[in-house]
Every structure is written in structure tokens, then in C-alpha cells.
Amino acid sequence: MAQALEGGAAVDELVRRLGDLGDGFLLVITGAGVSVASGLATFRGDDPGAVWNQDDVTLGTAEYFRRDPVTHWRWYLERFAGILDAEPNPAHSALVELEHWHTGRGGGFLLVTQNIDTLHEDAGSQRMVKVHGSADRLRCTRDGCALAAPTGSLPREEAEIAPFLEEPSAQTLPRCPTCGALLRAHALFFDEYYQDHHDYRYDEVMAASARADLLLSIGTSHSVGVTEMLLRGARGRGAGVLSIDPNPAPRPPGRGTVQLRARAEELLPAATRHLSGESG
CA-to-CA distance for 187 and 62, rounded, in angstroms? Predict the structure, then answer.
């Protein structure tokens, strides 16, 4: 059974484990919970805006997009409205500080986020992978187009989305500026694979799990395939696992995991202050 710590004990444990890591490899994986303090809803759990609680999983598939692109686009724009207007919270900023602190002492570091918001990069994270894609980009659906998978995409602002927002219809669907085919979100749909686009950097993520000396899981329910794969890879190496979440996970991350029952936006800044030698 996983150990659970709260309050000061959670801060002390995180600081101790990070300090003991030395120049080892720190792998961080974040889920929607890390962005809650920025005003964004989670995908699972108790949040009333969670996608699975709204039975929206069917809409977020490539199969549904092909069958009904108008409804799919409406769902996508409504579900993620405002996502690019959100601001990083203290958890994002603390992860930037943690990256600088750990790499500054010669340690390896990779942040893998399941989130498609831009909050980690807006805060300044550099060694990171967006394994589910990014909301600030779109891509073409025509095979062979330079803006299509497995390598292409374009900034969202370069696409004509305004006509569809004003009057959603088949005639106003966003189209590729290069070939005229339909555009789609540059995100991993529920019925797709991590290897479908190079931007997901699946091989790099799996290699990192095999190198990890400590896995820090933040704000994730451990209900998505990549979290299970990372946990399995890290444990195969004998890495320690810390899970930061104020609530018990629907799927506990397994034996040997230390659960730190705290909000990431509170726990992470407190830990980085200790690591940098500041009081508090």
C-alpha cells in the first residue's frame, strides 16, 4: 500500500528525495491537476467539468472527427475555450526553478506533460515534451501535406477559425492554407497512438523512463496510458516514485509510491524555497 504524507511532512519528504537524488535523472510527469490553479478544468476525477464525467470521450476521437467534423470542432472549441488565455500558476513556476536547480548541479531532467495548454512553456520550462500535443497548433488531415502528420503542423493563429466560430457549418470549417483540406487539432485523440506524430516524442519519453532515478508525478489520475508506461519503466529501473495530488488517485500508482497529499501550487514552491536555501 502506498504511503501518504500531508502538510510539512510532504514538503520534507519531497525536499529529502530531491536532495538525495544528486546528479541522477529526474523525470516529472504532469496532468491536468497542475493547471487547476490557473482556472482550467481537469479531465477526470471529481471536477464537474471533467471530460469523462460529461461522456465526451466519443467526441474526442479521430473516428468521430471523420464522421462529423462540424460537431467535433464545436466540441473542441467549446471544451477548450480560454485554454490559451490562462496564466501559469506557482506550480508551473516552481517546476522551472526545479529544472534550473537540478540541471545546475549536473542532473538529468525531463518534464513530460499530458496537458495541451501552454502553461509550462509560458512559465519557462525548457526540457519538456508535450506528449498529447498542443492547443496553440493545428494540423492538416491530408496524407502527404507538409502540414500533416507525422511531422507537420501550423500555429493556430495562421488558420481561419473566426468564420466557424461565427457560424459553425461544413462551409466554414477551418481548412489547410497549403492544400485546402480540413484542419484538425494538433492533439492526440482518444483512438490514436503516441507514435502518430513526431511532436509527441514517444521514443524520447520511453527512453527517459528507463533512465529515471526519481519519478515525480503531479496532478494526474494515472488513468492515461503514458502514465502507466512511465511508472512501469521507472520501476523497472528501481526508481523512486512520488505522486503529488491533494486527493487519492482513482487508480493508485502502486506499491512503493509515496503519495504527497497537497496542492502542487503550494507544495512545489515550498520545496523549491528549501532547495534554494531560503526559509519557509
Answer: 10
pTM: 0.91
For residue 202, is pLDDT > 60?
Answer: yes
CA–CA dist 38, 88 (Å, integer): 6
What's the average model confidence in pLDDT over 159-169? 97
Q: Which domains does the chain have, with CATH numbers?
A: 1-40+88-132+195-280 (3.40.50.1220), 46-85+133-187 (3.30.1600.10)
Residue 29: phi, psi to the nearest 5?
-125, 130
What amino acid positions are annotated as catalytic residues? 132
Task: Give one word for 6, left, alpha or beta, with left for phi > 0 and alpha for psi -120 to 50.
Answer: beta
Q: Tell me, rounded to whole angstroms, the distance of Cα 129 from its chain centroid.
A: 8
CA distance linking residue 229 with residue 227, whole number of Å: 5
Question: What angle, rounded to 10 degrees, do the helices at 90-104 and 264-275 form?
Answer: 30
What cell does 220 get? 494526474
Q: What is the CA radius of gyration of the chain?
A: 19
Q: d(Cα 275, Cα 271) in Å, to the nearest integer?
A: 6
Tens digit of each residue's pLDDT (9 = 90 or more) over 79-132:
889 999 999 999 999 999 999 999 999 999 999 999 999 999 999 999 999 999
- Provide the 10 A C-beta neighbour count for residue 103: 15
pLDDT above 90 as % of the chain: 75
- Taking the C-alpha atoms of residue 108 and residue 105, their distance in angstroms, rounded to an integer, is 9
DSSP 8-state code for residue 125: -
Other CB atoms within 10 Å distance of the CB of residue 274: 18
Q: How far apart are CA 123 and CA 140, in angstroms?
A: 29
| CA atoms of 174 and 238, how far apart (whole Å) | 47
